[in-house]
Design goal:
It is built from 16 helices and 19 strands. By secondary structure, it is α/β, with parallel strands linked by helices. It binds ligand BES, manganese (II) ion and zinc ion.
Length: 478
Amino acid sequence: MQIKRLESLEHIDSQLLLLTEEDCGSLSYDTRIKGIIESLIKRKDFDGKKGKNLRVPLPEGNLYLIGLGKKDKCTLNLIRDSLAWGLRTAGRNHAKNAAVNLSHLKSFDGLSFVLGEASGLCGYVFDKYKKKDENYEPFALTEIYSDVYEPEEFRKGIVFAGAQVYSRELSNEPGCVINPATLAEEAERLAKECGLECEVWNEERLHSENMGALLAVGSGSKNPPRLIHLTYKPKNAKKKIAVVGKGLTFDSGGLNIKPDNFMLTMKGDKTGACNVLGIMKAISELKPDVEVHGILSSAENMPSGSSFRPDDIIRARNGKTIEINNTDAEGRLVLADALSLASELNPDVIIDMATLTGACAVALGNWRAGLFVNDDELAGKLLNSSERSGESFWRMPLEDEHIAETLKSPYADLVNCGKRYGGAIFAALFLKEFVGENISWAHMDIAGTDFKDKEYGIYSKGATAFGVRTCLDYIMRL
Ligand code: BES
Ligand code: MN
Ligand code: ZN
């Protein structure tokens, strides 16, 4: 997709106008179609209310009027979603180009960036396995003309979008295509393409590196686990960051097998790891003065004669022993070893992303992820990035003596699963046991936000790459 400066409306086959309710009262912009819009407003066909979108066929194409609601309630994120809706709808209606009017919204900071992001996300759908019949038309839109023109910001937005599309595309792949080994192959391919270092540990190496928790989770599958470590290392890095992702290429629950309807969508249990790859791809393109390590801990959780069992006692990389009381609480196990490894790198900050607990989804719903942070300053920065990026996070407690009490095992240092109530907090407290002292650490529980059952704004049906934008924004502002 190309974004150019809007100079004339000649050869333009679709126009997007995002209007607040106030904008409808006083049409200050100057366009050829001002009269048409005024009569639509007079007839109350369009009033700028949020969610009120209208396609107006014109002789030379379509005009899309998109309501933003009250000006003081309007956010940059609503503009991002509205742009994605408009561009997607125009593209599906055979538009090859679209003119976007944004100058009347100049009080919002970041317009060019979100236009870049929306342009990269609007055409994405996971349809590579669907037969393309005679009625199939590929997404037509290839050019956007904008009256707000900041090429560097467009580029940044397009790179952010590329990271999300990459993560979604991988996360949407089923377990019969992506397993830990094929995920590692893809990471190696990406690293080569992007000039990143990449190291992959196979089962043998995982044994010699004492990755006992990751090995236990992977032991039931004929697709053995992998630890994948990518590095971006600029010359004069001012900070060192490690981003860690849960990469369960499928989570059946293991011997504590999930009921059927809970197992569906568990191909998405690798979203954290896919996000980390997307982030590394974007970092290699944006080149910040920050050393970034991407660590993916990948396994397939399956029931079989070689599975790890309830009652097993395993030893994690940092030496702590864990009594398994539920094989479906496997994400925290693969993350335990990855967090130990990340801590050994001595980074300033570790951020992990994981579709970790159904409890977090129950608590916060499908539009807000849980954020657990051991450092208030880091929490503040991440919440600012979350706000700017339109990915909502809610800070959750990492301090709870009663839940902490339930981490204790009579036979080992820890149990892997606590009570039903407070399940997301238990999991976070468990992870904390594997993070080095004095390291600032944030844990993002993205279960609930990782998949959408229908498209909305910038999201298509399926994987969302939720967390990529917040994390990239944070790294790019260090
Ligand atoms: N991958 C799941 C969590 C999950 C649930 C992600 C729903 C996305 C949507 C995780 O491994 C899991 O199974 N968690 C259990 C933990 C329980 C056994 C303590 C859960 O949430 O039920
Ligand atoms: Mn599980
Ligand atoms: Zn899982």
